[in-house]
């Protein structure tokens, strides 16, 4: 029975693509349709049998069958164009790709075939959306997209994914990944603002980006505040929303690694969450410049701004090296200092490290203190990033919640010491 499974998979994938094409062609007369549900299902079955026969008879069957199908599709395209019909080149190309998809399950590549079929169906389905998106792009935006593709798809994979310095600290791949992440969030935020307006666009960007890296969101919003000085409240709200996500994420990491620490952490981290969330909502509701004209950034500038991301990449490398030297100088016993230094770039790493060492190399109390200080330092260092890369108006807005956070941590520390 297992030998028939690849054929069944090919058939189902052909039906998926054919379903989309059949729906697209549903209003055309019978003779005017290019290809639909049955045609695409038959094409994948033909691909499956071609792959099977090429394995048991001759490997030449596969290229000959592909050549035959390509010739048949080319003739069909020519005949339709001669009769004045819409030649449907996209459907014919999709038919050829569908034939290849039908072959893949017979070569134990059912997963790749499934991904390919879904991708083809999605591309075919969203024709109008893709075309309208392309028409709305200007030259600077197209250049920005291609530049991001170069640094992420071309440069990132060729960088060594290992430390290259004598101290075994600086990993070019990981540092460049942060550069790509920051530049990517900036570009996504740019287009989100074009589509949804300033408030909703930046909120969506900050919430999505905050799940990955609130630091990257902070730097992106800081640079955006320079380009759009009329939107400091929205930028502040977006940064605080991204930072707000960090605290529950830290609690989730602790719950997975060392749930015993939650009793000591839920109150301080919960208080930080409330402070930043309330501040974020206040700034977002205060912003009045939400009309499309004011919401959009300067479209004459390229949406791709690599310099801030590159600056942060260099800063990250310097901090990692300084952290390593500090650990070496202070010794392993200075674990809280290590957590604070590590939090200059990331709060997740010290949180996971403290949680793993709790109850073993260090006490639960020490681990809890390290995690709280890491959250505090990481939150404050983001404000410092804004001071270096962002506008003064944005910095002044973030100083208030930053001060409230410090006051809350100090109050909690005094309460714990004297309770």
Give a short overview.
The chain is mainly α. The chain contains 18 helices and no strands.
For the biggest sheet, the summary is:
none
Helical content, roughly? over 70%
Q: Termini separation (Å)? A: 70 Å
Mean pLDDT: 81
Class derived from helix and strand content: mainly alpha
Beta-strand percent range: under 5%
Question: Could you state the order of secondary-structure elements as H and E?
Answer: HHHHHHHHHHHHHHHHHH
What's the gyration radius in Å?
28 Å
Number of domains: 2
- State the shape: elongated
Q: Key features?
A:
419 residues, mainly alpha, 18 helices, 0% strand, elongated
Protein described:
78% of the residues lie in helices and 0% in strands. The chain is built from 18 helices and no strands. The chain is elongated. The model is unreliable at 289-300 (pLDDT under 50).
Topology:
Layout: H1 5-24, H2 37-56, H3 61-82, H4 89-103, H5 110-125, H6 127-136, H7 139-158, H8 172-196, H9 198-210, H10 214-227, H11 232-257, H12 262-286, H13 292-295, H14 306-330, H15 335-342, H16 348-357, H17 364-389, H18 392-418
Helix pairs in contact: 1-2, 1-4, 1-5, 2-4, 3-4, 4-5, 7-8, 8-9, 8-10, 8-14, 9-10, 9-11, 10-11, 10-17, 11-12, 11-16, 11-18, 12-17, 12-18, 14-15, 15-16, 15-17, 16-17, 17-18
């Amino acid at each position: 029975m297992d030998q028939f499974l690849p054929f069944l998979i090919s058939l189902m994938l052909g039906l998926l693509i054919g379903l989309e094409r059949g729906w697209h062609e549903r209003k055309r007369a019978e003779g005017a349709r290019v290809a639909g549900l049955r045609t695409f299902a038959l094409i994948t079955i033909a691909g499956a049998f071609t792959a099977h026969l090429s394995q048991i008879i001759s490997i030449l069957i596969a290229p000959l069958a592909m050549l035959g199908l390509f010739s048949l599709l080319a003739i069909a395209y020519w005949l339709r164009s001669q009769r004045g019909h819409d030649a449907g080149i996209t459907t014919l190309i999709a038919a050829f790709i569908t034939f290849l998809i039908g072959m893949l399950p017979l070569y134990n590549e059912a997963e790749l075939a499934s991904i390919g079929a879904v991708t083809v169906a999605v591309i075919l389905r969203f024709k109008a959306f893709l075309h309208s998106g392309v028409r709305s792009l200007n030259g600077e935006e197209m250049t920005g997209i291609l530049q991001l593709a170069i640094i992420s798809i071309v440069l990132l994979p060729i960088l060594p994914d290992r430390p290259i310095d004598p101290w075994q600290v600086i990993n070019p791949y990981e540092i460049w990944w942060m550069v790509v992440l920051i530049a990517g969030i900036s570009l996504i935020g740019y287009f989100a603002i074009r589509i949804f307006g300033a408030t909703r666009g930046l909120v969506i960007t900050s919430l999505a980006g905050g799940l990955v890296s609130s630091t990257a969101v902070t730097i992106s919003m800081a640079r955006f505040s320079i380009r759009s000085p009329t939107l400091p409240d929205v930028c502040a709200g977006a940064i605080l929303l991204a930072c707000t996500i960090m605290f529950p994420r830290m609690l989730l990491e602790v719950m997975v690694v060392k749930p015993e620490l939650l009793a000591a952490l839920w109150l301080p981290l919960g208080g930080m969450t409330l402070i930043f969330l309330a501040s974020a909502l206040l700034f977002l509701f205060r912003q009045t410049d939400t009309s499309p004209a004011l919401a959009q950034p300067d479209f004459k500038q390229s949406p791709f701004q690599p310099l801030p991301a590159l600056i942060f990449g260099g800063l990250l490398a310097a901090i990692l090296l300084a952290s390593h030297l500090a650990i070496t100088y202070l010794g392993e016993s200075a674990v809280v200092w290590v957590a604070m230094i590590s939090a200059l770039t990331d709060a997740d790493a010290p949180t996971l490290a403290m949680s793993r060492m709790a109850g073993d190399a260090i006490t639960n109390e020490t681990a809890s203190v390290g995690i709280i200080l890491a959250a505090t330092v990481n939150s404050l260092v983001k404000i410092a990033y804004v001071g270096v890369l962002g506008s003064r108006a944005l910095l002044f807005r973030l100083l208030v919640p930053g001060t409230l956070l410090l006051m809350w941590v100090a109050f909690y520390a005094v309460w714990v010491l004297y309770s």
